[in-house]
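Protein modeling request. Please complete all fields; requests missing the sequence field cannot be processed.
Requester role: graduate student
Desired output: 3D structure, token encoding
Chains: 1
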Amino acid sequence: MTTPESLVYRSTPPALWTLYTRALSSKGKTKGQDIKIPELQAELVGASTGNDDLKRYRQVCGFTGKTTVPVTWPHILAFPLHVKLLTHKAFPLPLLGLVHLRNTITQHRPIAAGETLDLRVRLGGQTHTDKGIEFDLITEARAAGRLVWEETSTNLFRQPGGNKGSGKKGKPELPHYDNTLDVKAPGNLGRQYGRVSGDLNPIHIHPLTARAFGFPRAIAHGMWSKAHCIALLEQQEGWNPKGVTITCQFKKPFFLPGTARLNWQPAQSGWDYQLLNAKEDAPHLSGRVTWEK
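Delivered output (293 residues):
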């Protein structure tokens, strides 16, 4: 087993603007079955959870807590490391065009605002599907050497002529749960979230830049949608603030400005939830909340 190449940063993450400039360069060959995701990892030692964007992040995503950070906040702290790996010269795929398919976060205990974390991100989990290449960004956060938070984000790079599926699948039946809340997303949400998260993908920022990538309007960041769902669920009776795992599958785009419906219900050892479009006939995302015993 080889040791992955490791990039180490102390206190200050890599600068995103430099990385985005690199993201615009060509990656060369992006077709065929011989593409291999390299063994790379990046670390940020001594990251403070209480930086200047935390208050704005809470406001943009709807979190109400003050003494602990939102369960999705370490994802934001690690985001520059994600981009660093995805723009590394050894990474064979272009950053622009990657599709975020799934996200799973496990928080083993609440993280105090201002607590110092050591973050590590690595690449892994490569598979070839009928749609293209899937791979994982795996993030771990430790406090005083103990794992307190971890995340797996699965991304897709679309390729024509990938592994053939078993034929066209029927549309699955959409469940509807007992509890529903309205969700409103303003037209400038992508810019608001982009400023606090660092994720300035053009499809989220403005209608004109979104059209350049084939979207009629800007679309909400998937991780904003997940974070906002969690922020609303945290305010409901029965939410357990201790150890928790929250899965999410991203589905239909949430166009801006727009409205949606958060729909959820208690289930065995947790809650099922989904963010539906305004007509409640298609999901923007779906997932499950499971509390550690």
